[in-house]
Amino acid sequence: MNWLSLILLVAGAVALAYQAVALLAAVVHAGKSRLRYAKTPGGSTPGVSILKPVRGVDEGLKAALESHARLDYPDFEILFGVQDADDAAVPVIRQLMADRPDVEMRLVVAPTQAPNAKAGVLAALSREARHDVLVVNDADISVPPEYLRRVAAPLERAATGVVTCLYRAAAQSPAGQWEALGIATDFIPSTLVAPLVGIREFGLGSTLCFRRADLEAMGGFEAIGEFIADDYQLAKRITALGRRSSMSEVVVATTLGAPDWREVWRHQVRWARTIRVSRGGGYLGLPVTHAGVWAIVNAAAGNWPMALTLWVARVAMGVAAGFGVLRHWPALFAAPLIPLWDVWAFAVWLAGMSGRTVYWRGRRFRLDEDGRMAAEGE
Predict the structure, then answer these.
(1) What span, in angstroms and rounded, lies between the C-alpha atoms of 123 and 223?
(2) How far apart are CA 184 and CA 178, in angstroms?
(3) Residue 35 located in a structural domain
(4) Are 236 and 210 in contact (CB under 8 A)?
(5) CB 106: neighbour CB atoms within 10 A?
(6) How large a percentage of the chain has pLDDT more than 70?
(7) The CATH number of the domain where 105 resides is what?
(8) How many domains does the chain divide into?
(9) 353: domain range?
């Protein structure tokens, strides 16, 4: 056996170990979630203010907003925030408010100069909110009726500072469906592994539930208005107060619409560069998760037993996380293709290693080494 084959075998063994850990994390989370769902959330039901920044009308926006008006919870309000009164989403929001006068909803126009306009709008919404428990989620997130009961319940424990949710993506275009498969079988498993390896500050834009007191203690949304990863920054700063981040059993849904391949590539590179500037050391180790790549290179080197083992392990883990946890059916039907996602993800990782430019909402931004953002030309 030559040195190259030996190196590839070692790399394959490390990648295989990650797949085993991710598979375990998915199985454990799925088991815990089923146990939690078997119990009706009890205890107190504090008033909750849902802060929902909106910009434009994306695929699934109407259904996402309507799902929040159907929540089964005794005392909540929904605050929609837009930067411009002429935003295309305003008529959709006003129609929902007219259709559901029984639900307390308000529309807030919040012009902002914050580099991260979403964080700027959230700062304005938090000042308008009347409750002490706040929930933030992205505009295109759809939620089940029991959503608030389940995401607010962990805050009864004083040690819990942030509650977040996994999400399942759907799309209309082949490029969007490809990205949705990657989210379900690559990104979500990495999120489940994070707490197992000691990462405390995990939080996803799909849901962030927290106390107003902790938000104020970390400096409010104004403190993160310069950062691209507002969800990560919020979770990081609240957990730095000595609180814990908790993963809810609820899985929410989002719609990616019909992006083309260029949009998906830009989106993925933005994520990669955001991770790099937010968690530099962790970014360098990401190729360990790309078992499909190591399967292919081991096959090319003639290490067929390792290649086959990696391929099977990657498929098994992807199905366990994508279908077992999220009920994302493409993860089951397209299971043999899951390792090929890793080839795409490795290319994205390489692109993310260099450059600090990202595209977001039709604008181009430059990131500094701490994750602060500035529009190019400013």
Answers:
(1) 9
(2) 10
(3) no
(4) no
(5) 16
(6) 98
(7) 3.90.550.10
(8) 2
(9) 3-30+283-375
